[in-house]
Each structure stands twice: as C-alpha cells, then as structure tokens.
Specification:
Elements: E1 4-8, H1 12-24, E2 28-32, H2 35-44, E3 49-53, H3 61-70, E4 79-83, H4 88-96, E5 101-104, H5 109-123, E6 132-134, E7 137-140, E8 145-148, E9 151-153, H6 157-168, H7 176-184, H8 193-206, E10 215-218, E11 222-225
Parallel strand pairs: 1-2, 1-3, 3-4, 4-5
Antiparallel strand pairs: 6-7, 7-8, 8-9, 10-11
The chain binds calcium ion.
C-alpha cells in the first residue's frame, strides 16, 4: 500500500511534473486542480500527506490548510506548502496555519521527494520503512503485508503496528504504557488494557505458524518479541 499523496496545484504542468515524480518514487499521487476539489476529495479519502500550492484561484492554500486543521479527521495530515513567494513573513504565515514544511518555487522534484520522505518518516514511519525479517516472519510496512514461513497472514491494522514496533525493537521488554505511546501516540487516551486485547489478537494471528510464542509476557514488566 503506497502512501497516498494529494497534490493541490492549479498549474497543470507543475501538477503533472510532481505527479510523475511521486509515482516514480513509489507513491500514489492524487491530483487536484483547486482547493475546492481537494476539499471534496479529503472527505472521501484521507491522504497520507498533502502537497499544497499557496497561490490558487478561489480558495487559496492558506485557507485550505486552515480548514484541514479545523477538522478532526484531517487535522493531522502532514502538509508541505509550495509558493513562489520567498518572503520570510509568508513562510511564517504558512507555518502558522499548520503547514509542516515549506518549499519555494522553483524547486527540484528531488528536493520535494526528500522533504516528503522526511515528513512521512516522522509522521507515518510505516509508509517509508524497509521490510523486516525475524525468525521466519517477514513484515513489509509499505505494502502492509505479513508473511510467516513464506505464507501470507491476515493481520489487523493495530496488530500490524504492534508487531512492526516489536520487530524493530526485538528482545527488549516494553511496558503497556510504552507500547501505547509508540503505537497509538502519546496523545492517546486509550486504557492500557487495550494493549492486552491487541496482544491477544496478535498471538491469535500468529498462532497457526507457531510464531505466537515469540510474543512473550514478562511478568510485572510488559511484553517483548524474543526467540528465546
Ligand atoms: Ca498556483
């Protein structure tokens, strides 16, 4: 599952150039020629990141960024603003309304791709991470696939996140709170027993191949992924 990147840009040549480069970099570009059009798109599909032009006819980039931030389902989408203006106060205005990064036109597509990857790595590391192997398990964060002994395994999104975290940090014990923090984010208000529920599901998911035994309970401490 490649990351969905929404590009909002009214100049079609720039829109096509960005789209082509994103596609070549392994992303799934979604094109929008206006903020109004983009605004309708995000109601149906939440993109993983938005590349947003500042100067747009009708609703401009600043106004659209404000709307995104004001809505609970879109407020956390990372936004990179594009602008032809290279003035410091514009940059501050862009960051003020919630843009995560800022790029001045003309920019090189390579620079944009690098910024997108950096932002995704920070916000959604599973979308840019390399596949990981551990004891017969193969987890591919980008395609969201899990294999056990070369067989595809169906796994829920939260279980996938927990397993991904454990596979990046094997043999170490993590408390329920630490797992909550790493998997749900520190803003979560979820009860730490939720972790137990998902660990149980994760073990059930891995039960057929015998990999459930890798998920170990450490009494009084938490959980770990271990071969021992
Ligand atoms: Ca423009």
């Amino acid at each position: 599952m490649a990351a969905n990147i929404l590009i909002v840009e009214d100049e079609s040549s720039i829109l096509e150039l960005i789209s082509l480069n994103l596609h070549q970099a392994g992303f799934n570009p979604i094109r929008a020629i206006s903020a109004e059009y983009a605004n309708n798109l995000v109601k149906e599909t939440i993109p993983d990141l938005i590349v947003l032009d500042w100067m747009l006819p009708g609703m401009d980039g600043i106004e659209f960024a404000k709307r995104l931030r004001a809505n609970s389902t879109t407020k956390n989408i990372p936004v990179i603003m594009l602008t032809a203006k290279n003035e410091e106060d514009n940059k501050i205005k862009g960051l003020d309304v919630g843009a995560d990064d800022y790029l001045t036109k003309p920019f090189s597509p390579r620079e944009l791709i690098a910024r997108i990857k950096a932002l995704l790595r920070r916000r959604s590391p599973e979308l840019v991470d390399e596949p990981i192997k551990f004891s017969g398990l193969l987890l591919d964060p980008r395609s969201h696939k899990l294999q056990a002994n070369n067989k595809n395994i169906n796994i829920g999104p939260t279980e996938f996140k927990i397993l991904h975290f454990f596979m990046k940090n094997t043999e170490r014990v993590y408390s329920r709170n630490q797992i909550l923090d790493k998997v749900w984010g520190n803003k979560s208000v979820i009860d730490d027993r939720t972790v137990d529920v998902h660990i149980k599901r994760l073990r059930e998911t891995l039960n057929n191949s015998g990999h459930d035994k890798l998920i170990q309970t450490v009494r009084g401490a938490g959980y770990r992924l271990s071969k021992d």
